[in-house]
Specification:
This protein is α/β, with parallel strands linked by helices. The protein contains 13 helices and 15 strands. Pfam families: FAD_binding_3 (PF01494).
Length: 346
C-alpha cells in the first residue's frame, strides 16, 4: 500500500474517489452518515469527458450497459413551439460518443459493485466524528460529504455554505416513453423530460409556488402535450421534492490543507440546470486520484495542489454557468429571453 485515505461521504464523488485511490494501491475507508447508500433519484446526464473518466476508473463498461444515449432535444415554449435545439448531435460528433443518461440508482450500483471487488474497502455507516479525529492514522481525508460538508466547514470555516435559489424542484419517472425530450420554458417556471431507460421517461419541474403534487399539475395543466400526461401518469408518492440550493461564495481552494481534499458538492454544489453535478463529481474523483497516484504520499501537498489547479476553476465555471442559466430560464421577461434563444445557434 502506498498510503491510507479516509473518504467522508458515499455519494457519486465519494465512491468514485474510493475506487480510484484503491486502484492506485491506497488503503481506503469510506464513512457515510446515512444508514445505507442513497439509491433515490432519477436520471444523471454523463457527458463524454466524464464517461472517459469512468473508463479510467475502471467502471466504463458496467456504466455503459445501464445507460441510454441522448441524441436529440429541444427547448420549447408552453404552447410547444420550438425555440432552439440542444447541441447534442454536435457534441456527439466532436467527442466521438453521445451523451449518456443513467438513473442515479444504477450509477450508484455500478460504483458500489466496483468498490466491492476490493473486499478490504469498508463502508462504515455511522455519523462521522470530527475531521480531526477521522484524520487520525490517515494520510489523506477526502471531503465528499455534500453541500453541508463537515470536512469543508472544519477546514475552511462557514464563509461558504448552502444558499437557497428560491425555487422548488420536483422530479419523477413516468411509466411510458414520450419520444419528445428537452425543456419547456415558461414564465418563472420550466419543465424538462429525458430518456432514462426503455419504457420510462425522466421528468423534472421547477416552479416557485407549487407546494404539493396537485399544485405542480395545476401549474402545467395548460402546457403542451405530453407534459400534463406525464404528470398524471406518475404516482405522486414517488415524486421527489427539494429546495434548489448552491454553494456560495465559491471556495478559494479544493485542498484546504496538505492532507485534505474536497470533491463533488462539498466543493462546488450547483443548481442542476446544466445537468453536470454528477459529471463534475466524477471528474473531481478522477483528477484527485490521478494526482495522488502520480505524486504519492510523500508528495501529497504537491498532489493536492495539482488537483486544485486542474479542477477548481473548471468546476466553478460550470457552477456559475448553471446558476446563470437558471436565472435565464426562470425569468419573467419571456419575450426577450425567447427572442434571444431563437437567435442563438443550436
Amino acid at each position: 500500500m502506498t498510503g491510507s485515505a479516509l473518504v467522508v461521504g458515499a455519494g457519486v464523488g465519494g465512491l468514485a474517489t474510493a475506487i480510484g485511490l484503491r486502484s492506485a494501491g491506497w488503503a481506503v475507508t469510506v464513512v457515510e452518515r446515512r444508514a445505507e447508500l442513497e439509491r433515490y433519484g432519477t436520471a444523471f446526464a454523463i457527458h463524454p469527458a466524464a464517461q472517459a473518466a469512468l473508463e479510467r476508473l475502471g467502471v466504463g463498461a458496467a456504466f455503459r450497459e445501464l445507460a441510454v444515449p441522448y441524441h436529440s432535444a429541444q427547448i420549447r415554449d408552453p404552447r410547444g413551439r420550438v425555440l432552439a435545439s440542444l447541441p447534442l448531435e454536435r457534441m456527439e460528433k466532436k467527442a466521438g460518443r453521445p451523451e449518456l443518461l443513467i438513473s442515479r440508482p444504477h450509477l450508484m450500483e455500478v460504483l458500489a459493485a466496483a468498490l466491492a471487488v476490493h473486499g478490504d474497502v469498508p463502508i462504515e455507516f455511522s455519523e462521522p466524528a470530527t475531521p480531526a479525529v477521522l484524520a487520525d492514522g490517515h494520510d489523506l481525508v477526502v471531503g465528499a460529504d455534500g453541500i453541508r460538508s463537515t470536512v469543508r466547514e472544519a477546514t475552511l470555516g462557514t464563509r461558504s455554505g448552502p444558499r437557497a435559489v428560491g425555487d422548488l424542484a420536483w422530479i419523477g419517472v413516468a411509466g411510458f416513453e414520450t419520444g419528445s425530450y428537452g425543456e419547456t420554458w415558461g414564465k418563472g417556471r420550466f419543465f424538462g423530460m429525458t430518456p432514462i431507460e426503455p419504457g420510462r421517461t425522466n421528468w423534472y419541474a421547477v416552479t416557485p409556488a407549487a407546494a404539493t403534487p396537485d399544485d405542480v399539475r395545476d401549474a402545467f395543466a395548460d402546457w403542451h402535450d405530453p407534459i400534463p400526461r406525464v404528470l398524471a401518469a406518475t404516482d405522486p408518492d414517488t415524486w421527489i421534492r427539494y429546495e434548489m440550493r448552491h454553494l456560495y461564495p465559491a471556495l478559494p481552494t479544493f485542498a484546504p490543507n496538505p492532507a485534505t481534499a474536497l470533491v463533488g458538492d462539498a466543493a462546488h454544489a450547483m443548481t442542476p440546470n446544466l445537468g453536470q453535478g454528477a459529471c463534475t463529481a466524477i471528474l473531481d474523483a478522477d483528477a484527485l486520484t490521478r494526482a495522488v497516484a502520480t505524486h504519492g504520499p510523500a508528495a501529497l501537498k504537491t498532489a493536492l495542489r495539482a488537483y486544485d489547479s486542474e479542477r477548481r476553476r473548471a468546476a466553478q465555471r460550470v457552477a456559475f454557468g448553471s446558476r446563470t442559466l437558471h436565472r435565464l430560464v426562470t425569468t419573467r421577461h419571456t419575450h426577450l429571453r425567447n427572442g434571444l434563444i431563437r437567435l442563438m445557434p443550436s
